[in-house]
Each structure stands twice: as structure tokens, then as C-alpha cells.
Amino acid sequence: MTLHALISGAGIAGPALAHQLNARGWQTTVVERHPQRRDEGQNVDIRGAAREVVRIMGIDEAVRAANTGEVGMRFVRADGSAAASFPVDASGESDGPTAELEILRGELSRILVERTEAQTDYRFGTQLSDVVDHGDHVTAVLDDGTSVDADLLVIAEGLHSRSRRFVTGAEVAPLGMYLAYVTVARRDDDGRWWNWQHVSRSRSVHVRPDNLGTMRAVLTFISDVRGIDNLDRADQIAILRSTFADAGGAAPRILDELDQGAPMYFSTVGQVHTPTWSKGRVTLLGDTAFCNATFGGAGTSLALIGAYILAGELGAAADHRAALASYQRLMKPFVGAAPAVSASGLRMMNPRTETGIRVIHAGARLATSPIGKTIGKVAGRGFAGVRLPLPDYPVP
Asked: Has UniProt tagged this entry with the keyword ATP-binding (predicted)?
């Protein structure tokens, strides 16, 4: 009998799991509340054991072909001059802010969906509204009035999952930072560096290259005000204009493009650590279950590793209970190896004063200093340094 998995979420973790389950003979259905696959988003990187998962999945060539071409990260002053630089190490040994496998989130999602859409039933524009676990199967009621019966329901909706409640009441812990991701036109003088411009009062401006002929910008700021991410676009842009009016550097360019309708995705940095990832025939995957921070570099790698381990255990275990228990046990060390991003660390990396910015620039040159180590945690370094071995799952 063919087993059926219903997966909620068509970002990275969901399609990656569908890919691995399809290889093991499962039927897969993916539901996604957005009307189509989401192309927006910024650079994500693939580190540590996730690089081996990409190779096992057979998508490494496609990922490399879609590489952003970023040559490293550097702190820049408002005039564009570099204060400290971290070039990429193609060997993957130094674990710098830019990974060897650096790809846009939308491009990685595209690759995964394209590799699975022939075998997976994708249903966009709908989401879970209720779940009934019958013991021998689970029924998911969708908000379009239909329902789906499956042997397993996997919720892979990201940090701000609306369906996590079917497994746990764990809440997202906000870290006080907001991010506006903006796609802007590429200019002749744009290089291949990730430029990080610090601005006083805990603000930052990031501009990064992509492989699609545009540039990916991020405006970040720290605030005690909650709920800005729930406002409409016009209000968010008004807040960004007020917040970055005196920032200089690349900020005016980004604000002008926002006024001209540039694509923007507004989010907040948060964490969630759920005590249990499964309940009956329902389980959580990716940032829905384990998220050290939505800004820090480890989330995509953990999503890929989690999909690989969950599919492997489902294929190897005698029943779903044993598989889900093993999945959480085997995945925990990888989650524990992710950089520990904290509100205090984010504030250290985004100083309030010009003096603090100068200290950041000076300390960035010393990788072993407290500032250097914090840079590693916030900018993505450290996760690949813990090279945990992957379980070996033979694929039929």
C-alpha cells in the first residue's frame, strides 16, 4: 500500500521532504496558503551536513548554477569604503558569512518544486483550518472547503506558522529586530560583495548581489514596538522612510525604489523552540519546530537536514511513532549546533552610537574577539564548524 504524506508549506523544508519521500515511494501532497510559489526573499546559504544532503538529493549542480556569485561580506562606511572584509573561502573550512553554496531563497524553492511537481500534488492558495487524527490516519480540513486524508501530516510553514497549534502551544519569542527585504535594480558600480552599512541608533543597511540581474537589499532596525510587521505596505514604507531618513549610503537608493513599487517582504526576527515536534500523526519540520533566528544563516541548512532525516526515518522505522521519535532524537544535535542568536547579540552587532560602530569595525578584524565571535553567530558562521555525520539511509 502506498503511504501518503500531506505537507503544509511550499517553502524549502516542505518540497525538500516531498523530494525525499517521493524517492521512497510515498505519495505527497503540498498545500500552501500563498497563491503561487514565493519568489521573494534574500540570500540563504547551505552549510555543513546540508551540503551532503544537497548532493544526495542530486540537486547540487542546479544549486551551484544558481549561485549568487557573492564573493564575501564587508562592513562599509556611508561613503562606500570598506572597514573590514570577510571573503568567501571556497574550501568551506572558514565558515565565513558568505557560504560556498549561496543561493536566493526563491531560487532554491524553485529548484525543489521543479524537481517534485511531477510526483507531488501542489495546491496553492489554501491552508489548514482543522486537523482530525483518527489514529490510523489523519484528516486535514482545508480552508477551501476540501479535506485530505493522509497517513502523516507534516507542518513546514516557517517561524510564524499558523498551524503549529495542532502539535504545541509554543509561542514565537521576538528578538526586537525588524527586516525589510527589498529587490532593487542593479547599477553599473554594484559589485559582488555583501555590503553591510552600520547606522547609529541600531540600524543597518545591507546590499547583496543575486544571479538574476538585480540586487537584494535589507533595511534592519531594532525597536521595542511590536506589531510593525502586521501593518500594510504603505505604513511600513512610511516607518522605513522616517527611520532611515538620515542614514545616507545606500539607504536613499532603497527608499526611492520602494516608492517606485520595488518588491518588499517585511518580517521580524524571532525564535521558537518547541518541546515536542510531534503529536500522533502530525509532526513539525524546519523553522516551525526549531528556529534559532530568522536572521543567522542556519535555518535553510536545518530545513534540508531535517527533511532528509524525517524521510529517512519514515522509510526505515516500523511505524510512524518510532520514526517520529527517532527523527526528533537524531535531529536535536544538529539544532543544538546552530549559532545561538540572542537579542543582546543583535544589539551588539547593531550599535546605537558612532563610537560603537567604530568599535565593531575594529573588532571585526579580530576573529577571536567577542565582537568577532558575535559576527560569526549573527552572520552565519559557526554552523558548518560542527560537522556532525548524517545518518545513512539507503534509497530504494
From this structure: no
